């Protein structure tokens, strides 16, 4: 009991001894995300007076559609793509995290640190996706200056001044009232409001499409990660071709150890007849491939995939039947938004099918701003603890004065990569061939793998060892 109490105190202490350098590092990240979004706003406002307006044919039927109001307004698209994902990701991070695998003896401070960290990464990924899509879209709109399908309805061209604003075509000898295409500049438009005219030449790419896919596809990826929604597949290291794999067996259960009986021979002696039966256990087999995974419930697929992605698709299609964008504009915007959502999600979250729903861990104090040559990443050994605390613990470790300091330095009970564990509980050994159990004594150590340092936690009993998959 004393050991468990000491472990709990160590966990709680590690949860509150945060490094100011790490906090400042992520504050800077947030500032840069807001700067990217602000840069998109600058493109929208500052470049509006100098925005390109591509010359057009007056006879082009693709720009002769009537002007219709928005089915999905800019404010509505912002609420659906920004506020709704932000609210849902916050609720899930604060309620679902850390999940059912967390030990009941884990201190509340450590659990809430995990909740707030998952909340932070959820919003950082969402903000990065939306800011990137917004900046790219607004910058391309002014560079391209492509006419919208309803451009002529907004432009209201002066048909008496065609020759004055002619910029191309087949020459001056053709009848301007005939069927010969005549390319003219935007100066022929009689619309006097420069902002309205600029919007008429902002067709490519679609901002509604990019913003909706950036926010709603990110939400879909987030929900799939937290609820383990994915198409079943074989792990790369999964053994499915073992000689004793009974993949064509019709049984729904794993094969049980079988018992064989030696019948007594009439010629047997008393010494041999006393051994009448023995058990043989067959453990040299692997389960059938169909028992290696299972499909998630359909209602989770509807919630995590169909609803968010369907909402994004509806917003995109509304831009088509409202005559605000051409088809290639909508597809281009959806591609920009989807790419931003996926890259931003993977930047902060582990893969859906192999990450168990967790986000990546935080940078460490020594690598909060710069890695330097010879280091392959932004993680280290000190975790979240502050500089003075880390130096004091290391001094205690070197002198052998404090067992609690050894646990803090080696990361006991502060595992940020997977389940939150603490106290005296059963542990897990993850190996390339599958999960197994590891029973240890009351020891603490570190495990150096080829891809980095992994922590080995033990607390008066079973421990856990994470190795690269």
From TrEMBL:
Q: Has UniProt tagged this entry with the keyword Glycoprotein?
A: no
- UniProt keyword annotation of Transmembrane present: yes
Q: Biased-composition ranges for Low complexity?
A: 263-275
Q: Compositional bias of type Polar residues: which residue ranges?
A: 438-449
Matching InterPro entries, A to Z? Answer: PAP-like, PAP2/HPO, PAP2/HPO_sf
Q: Which family does it belong to?
A: Belongs to the PA-phosphatase related phosphoesterase family.
Q: Report the protein name in the record.
A: Phosphatidic acid phosphatase type 2/haloperoxidase domain-containing protein
Which source organism does the UniProt entry give? Lithohypha guttulata
């Amino acid at each position: 009991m004393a050991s468990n109490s000491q472990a709990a105190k160590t966990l709680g202490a590690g949860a509150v001894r945060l490094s100011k350098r790490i906090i400042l590092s992520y504050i800077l990240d947030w500032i840069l995300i807001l700067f990217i979004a602000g840069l998109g706003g600058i493109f929208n406002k500052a470049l509006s007076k100098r925005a390109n307006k591509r010359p057009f044919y007056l006879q082009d039927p693709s720009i002769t559609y009537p002007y219709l109001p928005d089915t999905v307004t800019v404010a509505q698209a912002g609420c659906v793509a920004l506020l709704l994902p932000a609210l849902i990701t916050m609720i899930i991070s604060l309620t679902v995290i850390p999940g059912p695998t967390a030990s009941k003896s884990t201190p509340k401070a450590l659990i809430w640190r995990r909740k707030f960290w998952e909340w932070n990464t959820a919003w950082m990924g969402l903000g990065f996706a939306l800011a990137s899509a917004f900046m790219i879209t607004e910058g391309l709109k002014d560079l391209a200056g492509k006419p919208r399908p309803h451009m002529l309805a907004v432009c209201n061209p002066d048909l008496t001044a065609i020759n004055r604003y002619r910029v191309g075509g087949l020459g001056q000898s053709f009848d301007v009232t005939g069927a010969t295409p005549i390319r003219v500049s935007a100066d022929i438009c009689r619309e006097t409001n420069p902002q309205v005219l600029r919007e008429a030449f902002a067709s490519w790419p679609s901002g509604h499409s990019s913003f909706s896919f950036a926010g709603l596809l990110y939400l879909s990826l987030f929900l799939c990660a937290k609820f383990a929604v994915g198409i079943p597949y074989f792990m790369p290291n999964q053994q499915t071709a073992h000689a004793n794999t009974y993949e064509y067996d019709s049984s729904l259960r794993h094969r049980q150890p079988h018992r064989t009986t030696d019948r007594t021979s009439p010629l047997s002696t008393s010494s041999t007849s006393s051994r009448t039966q023995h058990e043989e256990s067959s453990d040299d087999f692997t389960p059938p491939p169909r028992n290696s995974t299972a499909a998630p419930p359909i209602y989770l697929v509807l919630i995590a995939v169909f609803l968010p992605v369907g909402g994004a698709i509806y917003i995109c299609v509304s831009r088509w039947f409202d005559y605000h964008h051409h088809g290639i504009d909508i597809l281009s915007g959806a591609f920009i938004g989807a790419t931003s959502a996926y890259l931003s999600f993977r930047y902060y979250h582990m893969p859906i099918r192999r990450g168990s729903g967790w986000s990546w861990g935080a940078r460490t104090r020594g690598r909060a701003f710069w890695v330097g040559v010879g280091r392959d990443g932004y993680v280290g050994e000190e975790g979240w603890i502050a500089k003075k605390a880390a130096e004091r613990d290391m001094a205690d470790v070197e002198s052998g004065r404090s067992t609690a300091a050894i646990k803090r330095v080696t990361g006991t009970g502060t595992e940020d990569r997977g389940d939150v564990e603490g106290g005296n509980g059963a542990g897990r050994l993850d190996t390339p061939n599958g999960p197994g159990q590891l029973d240890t004594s009351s020891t603490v150590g570190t495990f150096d793998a080829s891809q980095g340092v992994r922590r080995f936690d033990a607390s008066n009993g079973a421990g856990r060892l994470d190795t690269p998959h």
